[in-house]
Design goal:
The chain has 180 residues and is mostly helical. It is built from ten helices and no strands. Helix 1 crosses helix 2, helix 4 runs parallel beside helix 6 and helix 8 packs parallel to helix 10. 35% of the residues are buried.
Length: 180
């Protein structure tokens, strides 16, 4: 009768998975912590881990009173690329906070649902250059040729970052439509 040998590699992977499960649970709980630093770090960690169980708890943070928490939450949701986040993120596009508008455009670009282009496009005329930049980058990622002219108009924007983002977005649109 062969002796039962333990596989140290298998055991190490099992322990790693158990720690990962514990970490996810801890991070999800910390999203509700009164300390915004814990909420920020937990949202960031959950975005980096990429577990879809984080989407619903992260969505609750979109109404957090601390703009930095919302910004990092939008970044995490963009990294997760889960379609469940689309409608709640769209609701953030009209926020008075520029970082929320900017993060929302970025996140929708990352999620990649071309149907969101119509709600991102109005941000091309936002007062804040970071918001315009994020919007044009998102439209470039989404690849909807309907917005080519609106993006072209940003080639004359006062801000260099916006002009560069417009050039990059037009390049993506051109490349995308040459391969179709």
């Amino acid at each position: 009768m062969p002796s039962e040998e333990r596989d140290p590699v298998h055991e190490a992977f099992k322990r790693r998975e158990e720690r990962q499960e514990q970490n996810i649970s801890i991070f999800i709980r910390q999203l509700q912590d009164e300390n915004p630093t814990f909420r920020i770090r937990s949202a960031e960690s959950l975005g980096n881990i990429g577990d879809p169980r984080a989407v619903e708890p992260l969505l609750k943070l979109l109404s957090d009173p601390i703009p930095d928490v919302v910004w990092v939450t939008l970044q995490a949701l963009g990294k997760l690329r889960d379609p469940r986040a689309i409608d709640p993120i769209i609701d953030c596009l009209t926020s008075p906070d520029r970082w929320t508008r900017q993060g929302s455009a970025w996140a929708l670009g990352e999620i990649g649902d071309r149907r969101t282009a119509i709600v991102i496009a109005p941000l091309l005329s936002d007062k804040k250059k970071g918001v315009r930049t994020a919007a044009v980058e998102a439209l470039g990622k989404l690849g909807d040729p309907m917005y080519t002219q609106a993006i072209r108009e940003l080639l004359d924007d006062d801000e260099m970052e916006v002009r560069q983002a417009a050039r990059d977005a037009l390049g993506k649109l051109l490349t995308l439509h040459q391969t179709e």
